[in-house]
Amino acid sequence: MAKDKSGYIIAAAFIGPGTVTTASIAGANFGFHLVWALLFSITATMVLQDMAARLGIATGQGLATNLKEISQNPVLRLLFSLLIVAAVGIGNAAYESGNLTGAAIGLDAFFAIGTGNWAIILGAISALLLWSGKYKVIESVLVVLVIAMAIVFFVTLFAAGPEWTAMFSQAATPQLNTSTINMVLALIGTTIVPYNLFLHASLTAQNYIGADKAEAIAASRKQSVFAIGFGGLITLVVMATAMMAFFNQAASMDAANMGKQLEPVLGEWAQWFFAAGLFAAGLTSSITAPLAASYAVCGAFNWPQDMQGKAFRSIWLAIIVTGVVIAGMGFKPLSAIMFAQAANGLLLPIVAIFLLVVMNRNATLGEFKNGTTSNVLGALVVGFVVCLGVYKLYSLF
């Protein structure tokens, strides 16, 4: 059995530039009044990723392949395939644009040639790494950089002397209205990443071949809870440092001064370090998102899930190209990243409902099917996100 690190890969995938940017904006604009949305997101991520990992281990197949096997009706199977392509393709294209934009913001702080130009360069780098098939080595290095950034955020939080009373007071008075709904959806979309459900199922299916299923599921669950919980803690700390630097202060946060929140520890180097962290987080996620799309689409159409295969390569290349085009269209950088996270929040129910259906109807799961607790928790997650989406649409009129 290969050593499984899928839980850490999932955590690293959602701690991208979208998470850093979204958490920073949330803390700067709303303080800790939206902590409830983050706590919900982390809990929901643990619930849904546990289902995806359990599915991969118990069946030895990814989520997309399992979805097609729900029905033998060729029309329904084709419909499932098309829905997978639509949900994952659209979601990943939006997410990829946010990843590339975030990394481009970081690089543009060092060499100002424009975020659109950097997006093209970064897209090319991501494509070359995936084409080589050796992306995991590069990804590991970048994850280390992201962890280093997280350490600085932790040090900054305590060195700056946080106002714990104000934080708890704001956390105890949650907000949800027309002015916060976009941010709530963005926090959910940047944490409960739909493509991670496909990625996690595929990775565990490959990594636990031949293992005792009960033991493998227990080990995977323990790892995922720890890794996702740590990722949530990082997000919370980013929100806290931004709150101290910008909330109810004269200065407002934008792409040029996000790194100010690190000044208590890093001084004049704060902006540079923050930029390097955005680049590392962005490049890591810009590799993971198209990879997950390839697994999902190839599984949906029964194509070989081989990284050297033509279909596999064509799919991730299409996602990268689409992400580059969107990132280079001239949108305001932070707006582009926020849009990507909100789009994921709206697409999440589609994928989550698919996951719930297959976790109850797949005969191969046997004793590892969803129990009452998993179904109730999953239904609550889906129901709440759907209600938020409806509220968002209602607020537009």
From TrEMBL:
* GO biological process assignments: iron ion transmembrane transport
Q: Where are the transmembrane segments?
A: 7-28, 34-53, 74-95, 107-130, 142-161, 181-203, 224-249, 269-293, 314-331, 337-359, 371-394
Q: Which Pfam families match?
A: Nramp
| Key word Cytoplasm present | no
Q: Where in the cell is it found?
A: Membrane
Keywords attached to this entry = Membrane, Symport, Transmembrane, Transmembrane helix, Transport
Topology versus the membrane: Multi-pass membrane protein
Record's GO cellular component, any one? plasma membrane
Gene Ontology terms for molecular function: cadmium ion transmembrane transporter activity; manganese ion transmembrane transporter activity; symporter activity
Q: What is this protein called?
A: Divalent metal cation transporter
